[in-house]
Design goal:
Layout (H helix, E strand, L loop, with lengths): L10 H89 L3 H18 L4 H7 L3 H7 L1
Helix pairs in contact: 1-2, 1-3, 1-4
Length: 142
C-alpha cells in the first residue's frame, strides 16, 4: 500500500480504508492465533508423552542393568566361595600332613604354609557377600 496522496484519493479516505482492512483482518488473525496456540499445546502434550516414555524406558533399563550386575556379582562371589573352600581344605590337609612329619620338616612346612596363607589373604567371599547389593539396593544407591 502506498501513502502517496493523489487527487483521486485523499489521505483521510485511505486511512478509513486501512482501518476497515485492519478491522476485517482481526477475526482471521485471532483464528490463526488460536490455531497456533492449539498446535503449540498439542506439541507440548506430545513432548510430555515422549518424555514420560523415555523416563519409563530408562527406569526399565536401569532395573535390568542393576539385576544383571547384581546377579553377575553374586555368581562371582559363589565362584570365589568355592575357591576359598578349596584353598581352606588344602591348608587343613597340608597342616595335618605336616603334623605327621619329623619336627624339622614339620616346622619348615608349617612355616611355608603360614607364608602361603599370608600371600593368599585378601577379601573373602563372605566379606564380598556382606557388601553385595540386591538390584533394589543398587537402584536406590545410584
Amino acid at each position: 500500500m502506498s501513502w502517496n496522496e493523489t487527487k483521486k484519493q485523499e489521505l483521510s479516505s485511505r486511512i478509513t480504508s486501512t482501518i476497515k482492512s485492519l478491522k476485517s483482518a482481526v477475526p482471521e488473525l485471532e483464528k490463526q492465533l488460536r490455531e497456533a496456540e492449539l498446535e503449540r499445546q498439542k506439541r507440548h502434550a506430545e513432548q510430555l508423552i515422549q518424555q514420560e516414555r523415555w523416563r519409563k524406558e530408562e527406569t526399565i533399563r536401569k532395573a535390568n542393568e542393576a539385576a544383571k550386575q547384581s546377579k553377575e556379582e553374586l555368581f562371582s562371589i559363589m565362584a570365589q566361595w568355592t575357591e576359598d573352600k578349596r584353598v581352606e581344605q588344602f591348608f587343613e590337609e597340608a597342616e595335618k600332613d605336616a603334623l605327621k612329619m619329623s619336627d624339622r620338616d614339620q616346622m619348615s612346612v608349617l612355616e611355608r604354609l603360614s607364608l602361603t596363607q599370608q600371600f593368599l589373604s585378601g577379601t573373602s567371599a563372605i566379606e564380598r557377600l556382606i557388601k553385595w547389593q540386591t538390584p533394589e539396593e543398587r537402584l536406590k544407591n545410584n
